[in-house]
Amino acid sequence: MSIDEKTAAHVAKLARIRVDDARLPELAQEFNTILGFIEQLSEVDVEGVEPMVSVEPMRLKRRADLVTDGNQQAKVLSNAPDAREGFFAVPKVVE
Amino acid sequence: MSELTKMTIAAARDALGKGEVTSLELTEACLTAIDGADALGAFVHKTPDLAREMAAAADARIKAGEADKLTGIPLGIKDLFCTKGVPSQAASRILEGFRPEYESTVSQKLFDAGAVMLGKLNMDEFAMGSSNETSVYGNAVNPWRVNGQDLTPGGSSGGSAAAVAADLCLGATGTDTGGSIRQPAAFTGITGLKPTYGRCSRWGIVAFASSLDQAGPMAKDVRDCAIMLEAMCGHDPKDSTSADLEVPDFEAMLTGDIRGKTIGIPREYRMDGMPAEIEALWAEGRKMLQDAGAKIVDISLPHTKYALPTYYVIAPAEASSNLARYDGVRFGHRAKLSQGDGITEMYEKTRAEGFGPEVQRRVMIGTYVLSAGFYDAYYNRARKVRTLIKRDFEDAFAQGVDAILTPATPSAAFPLGQSDDADPVAMYLNDVFTVTVNLAGLPGIAVPAGQDGQGLPLGLQLIGRPWEEGDLLNTAYALERAAGFVGKPEKWW
Amino acid sequence: MLDLTFEAPKPKVIAGAKHDWELVIGMEVHAQVASKAKLFSGASTQFGAEPNSNVAFVDAAMPGMLPVINEFCVEQAVRTGLGLKAKINLRSAFDRKNYFYPDLPQGYQISQLYHPLVGEGEVLVDMEPGIARRVRIERIHMEQDAGKSIHDMDPAMSFVDLNRTGVALMEIVSRPDIRGPEEAAAYVAKLRQILRYLGTCDGNMQNGNLRADVNVSVCRPGAYEKYMETQDFSHLGTRCEIKNMNSMRFIQAAIDYEARRQIGILEAGGEIVQETRLYDPDKGETRSMRSKEEAHDYRYFPDPDLLPLEIEQAWVDDIAANLPELPDAKKARFVTEFGLSEYDASVLTADLANAAYFEAVAAEAGDGKMAANWVINELFGRLKKDDRGIEDSPVAPGQLAALVGLIKKGDISGKIAKDVFEIVYTEGGDPAKIVEEKGLKQVTDTGAIEAAVDEVIAANPAQVEKAQANPKLAGWFVGQVMKATGGKANPKAVNEIVTAKLGL
Predict the structure, then answer these.
(1) Other beta carbons less than 10 A from residue B144's beta carbon
(2) Cα(first)–Cα(last) distance of chain A, in Å?
(3) Residues of A in contact with C167 (CB under 8 A)
(4) Catalytic amino acids of B?
C-alpha cells in the first residue's frame, strides 16, 4: 500500500489539519514509512481470532436517570475563544 | 535545606509525623530547588502559592493528629492531568491558556490524601513521544549527563522523571500509554509503575489512546510507588473503564520475600543488536531474583514482535478521534482567521497551528487507518493481534508465572536532538519492551538496577498479573534491594 | 391478542411524461428518549433552557471527560424494541462516528453501528379500515443528539448551544417498505402513537423530539416486487435522503416533490445522484445540502471509553412483562369487546388518554357502543371546538357515563341529552340532578301524551285530512306534540299514539 500526495492531502482534509502543498511529498513519505512498519501485521494469522474489546472483562457501568450536572453556563464558557450572549461563536456555517 | 528534597516519601512522612520537619519547610525546599532547576525544563507551570497554602493546611492537619497517607508530601503533576484553575495543556499549543474548571480524579485523590502540588510537569505533546522533545514548552532535560551533553529524560513523562531524579519533588504523577512512565523512569534512575488498565481513573486526564492510557506513580523507590499508588487508584464511577475493586494496602505487602515465586524470562525480548550492557543487566537481574529464592523459567511470548506495529495502529486511531475535540470552538487556541475564512478554515488553521508535527503525524495516520476501506486491514486486524498478544501473557501466567522480567529500554538515555534526523519509526522502537504491557493491560514497573559504562542508569522491567500490583511491587522491592542502586546525578543545573 | 385482518394498500403511482412510476420510501426516525438526564452525562434534558446551561463538562467535550451510560435510556430503547416486536440483542456496543461540526463537541457522535441494541421488528401502518401496510424495522440503535447551531443571530457568525448535545436518541431504521407520501406520514404517526403508548418518547415533533430522515427513490411498476422477492436493492432506484423532517405535512410534501424531481431527471435521460437534501417548506422544494456533500468518511470504530453493553434476558423479560397494551391490540379488543366499528376503534385508540377515557365511560355506562358515540361525536367535537385535549376535559368519565345511563334508561331522549351534556360541559354537575332540577325527564305517561295528541288533532283538521291521505305527513303531528311537551315526550310513544289516533 503506498500513499501518494493526493491521498495525503485527503487524509489531512479529513483530519482538518492544513498542510501546505509543498509539504505533501514529505508527508506522504512519512506515512509510507509508518505504514510499511505497520504492514508487518499482515503476516499474522488472525483466522478465528476475536478483536479485543476490553483488556479486562468488566460489566459496563450504569448511571441512574438523575439530573446531577449542568447549570454552569459560566464555567462551560469560561475557556471559550469566543463566547457571546451565552453561546459559543464560530465563523458562519453554511448548511 | 536541599537535603530535605532528597527524602523519600516514606522518610518524609515519618519525619512529618514526628514533627522533625513541617510540610511548609519541605515545600519551600522543593520550591527553591525547582526555581534553581529551570535548565532541566521539568516544571512548566509552577504553583508556589497553591503549594504553600496546601502545605499550611497539611501542617494544621498533622498538628491536629488528622494526617492521612500523603499529608504534607510535595508532588509534581504531569501536565496531562487537568488541575482546577491551573493551566493544563498536555504540553500542546492547542490548549494554550486552558484552565480546567475541574480536577482530575487521580490528582484529587492525591490531594485528598494530603499531598501538596508544586506545579505541572513537562511531557511530550499529548504524551506522544519518547524523548520529551515534542513539548510546546521545549525539552525536558535529564539530570544525568555524559561529558556535559544534554540527554533526554525519556518520554512522554520526561518532566516527571527529571523532577524526581533531580530531587525537585518527592514524587510525581505520570501516565503510560506505551511506556511513558517506565522508559523515562529507567532513563533517570527512578522507579515508575504503570498499574493494570482500570486501576486508576482516567477521568480528567487528557486522553491520548483511551484503551491504553493509565496513570501511575513515579518516585524514588518501590516503597514510594506503593504509597502513591494506593492514594491514586480506586474505583471511579465517572470512568466506565475503572475497575470496581478493593484497593489493598500496597505498602504492607512489601516484605521482600519472593521465595517460591516463579519469574518468567521471555525469549522474544532478546533483540538483535541489543547492547551488551542491557543483556548483562538482564542476566544480573535474573540472578538477583533467583538468589532471593524465586524460580526462574524461560517463557515464550510469541507475538511480541507484532506489539509495536499493533500499537502504532491502535494508539493513533484512538488519538485521531480523541483529539478531534481540539477544534478552537470551546477552549484553547483558535487561529487568527483571514477575511472570508469559514468554519473549515478555522478548524484546519487552528489544528495546524495548535498541534506539533508528531501529533499531526499520528492524528493523520490514525485518520488513515480508520478510513473507509482500510478499517479491517489495519484497525480490526490490529485488535485481533492485540488479542493474541494478551493471550501470550495469559498462557504464561497459566503456567504458573508470577512475574516476567525484561529490560525496561533497549538503551540508556540518548542525547537530545538525536531524533531530529531519525525517521519516526526509529523513535518508536524505544517502546519495544514496554508497549506489550499496555496492549495486554497489565501492570508493569521499571526499577533502576545498574549503570552503563558511561555511568548512566539502566532499568529492568517487571510485568505482573492483572490487578496484582501488590505482588508485583513486592517482587520489585526484592529486586531493588538486591540491585542496591543508589546512583544520583551530579548537580550541574 | 387478536389481529384484525387487513390487505396491503396500493402503492402510489405518479404518471410521468413518458410512463408510470412508483415510490419507494425508507425512514430513519430519531426519537428522543423521555429521560430526565442525558445519555452519557447527568445534565438535564429540559427543553427551552438558557443556552449552554444544561451542559456537563462531558457534553462540552472538555479534555479528559468520560461518558457513563444512563441505564434508564437503555431500558426505554429495549421497551421500544419490544413494542415493535423486535429482537433485543443482549450484547451491543457503542461506536464513534467521526466528523467535524461546531455543535458536535467531541468531534464524534457516540452511536451503535456494528452492534445495535435492537434488531428486526415491524410496524403495522393502518391506512383505512381493513387496509394496512406492514413496514419492517431493520434496527433500533441508541445515540447522542447533537447541539444546536443558530445561523441567523449574526451576519458573520454562527452561535452554538450545547443544551441538546448528548440527549439520548433512539434511531429507528425501517426497510424501504413505504410506498407513498400518505403512508410515510401514517408510518410516522403510528410510530409516534406506539412510542407514546410505551412512554419512551413524548413524540413532540415541534420541539424536534421526533424527527425523520426520509429516503426516497422511484422505480417502474414491477421493480419493487422483484426487490421484495430477492431483497436485491439493484432493482430499486438510487435514493436521496431528505434530512430532519419534523412535520407530517412537510414529510408528505417533501416526498411528493422529491419523487417528481427524480422522475423529471430520469425521464430526461439523467441519473439520480445519491445525496443528502433539505426540504424548504417556504418554497416547497428540496435542495442539496452543501455541507454534507463534502467527502465524508465517518471512520466508525468501537468507542474505547465504553465497554460493550451486556444486558440480561431476565431484565428484558421483566420489561416485556410490564409492557402496556399497545394500539393494535387495544383497537382489536375495542372491536371485539365493545362491538365498535374498526373506524371508531381507531379513533378512540389514536391516543392513550382518549382510549382510557372511553374505557372508563364504557365500563361505568355498561354500553360500549353508546359510550363510543358520545365520546367521539359529542365530547371530542366539543373539545375540538375549544381546542382542548382530553386531559382538560371539563366532563369527567363518570359524568358522561351517567348521561349515557339516563338515555339508556329512557329517562331522557338523545336530543335532551345533548342539552344536558352542554350544561355539564359548561357548568358541571351531576346529569341526573340536572335532569331532575330542570324537569327534563322524558314523559312516558301515555295518558299525558294522548291528551297532547288529541289537542293537536283537534286544532288541525286540515292537516288530519292530508295525513290520512298521505301517511308520510304524520311526522308533522309528532313534531307538534314534541313541541307542545317541550321535547320531553318519549318520541317513540308519541309516534305510536299519533299513528293510532289518525287511524293510519
Answers:
(1) 25
(2) 36
(3) none
(4) 78, 156, 180
Give dist(CA C144, CA C125) in Å, integer. Answer: 28
pLDDT on residue C452? 85
ipTM over 0.90? The verdict is: yes
- Decide if C100 and B327 are in contact by the 8 Å CB cutoff: yes
Contact B423, B296 (CB under 8 A): no
Given CB atoms, is B210 within the 8 Å cutoff of chain A? no
Exposure b/e, B106-125, CB count within 10 A at least 16 = b: bbbbbbebbbbbbbbbbbbb
Give the mean pLDDT of B105-118: 98
Residues 29-88 (A) with a CB less than 8 A from some CB of B: 30-31, 33-35, 37-44, 46, 49-52, 54-56, 58, 60-61, 63, 72, 75-76, 78-82, 88
Q: pTM for the full model?
A: 0.93
Highest mean pLDDT among B37-46, C402-411, C466-475: B37-46
Q: Which domains does chain B have, with CATH numbers?
A: 2-260+403-483 (3.90.1300.10), 305-380 (no CATH)
Residues B353-388 have pLDDT tens digits of: 999 999 999 999 999 999 988 999 999 999 999 999
Of A39-48, B153-162, C74-83, C295-304, the poorest mean pLDDT is in C295-304
- Find which of B177, B367, B430 to mutate to test the A interface (most A CBs within 10 Å of its CB): B367
Q: Which of B97, B241, B383 sits opposite A52 (nearest CB)?
A: B383
**B424–A56: do the CB atoms touch at under 8 Å?**
no
Interchain CB distance below 8 Å, C60 and B330: yes
Query: CA C367, C369, C374, C376 torsion: positive or negative?
Result: positive
Dihedral, CA of residue C351, residue C352, residue C354 and residue C355, to nearest 10: 120
- C144-183: string of b/e by CB count within 10 Å (b at 16+)? bbbbbbeeeeeeebbbbbbbbbbbbbbbbbbbbbbbbbbb
Question: How far A18 CA lies from chain C's nearest CA (Å)?
Answer: 14
State which H helix or E strand residue B183 sits in: helix B182-188
Instruction: Search chain C and give the residue with CA nearest B243.
Output: C307
Query: CATH says C446-501 is which class?
Result: mainly alpha
Are C111 and C98 contacting, i.e. CB atoms less than 8 angstroms apart?
no
Side-chain-side CA neighbours of residue B159 (13 Å): 34
Say whether B306 and A44 touch across the interface (CB within 8 A): yes
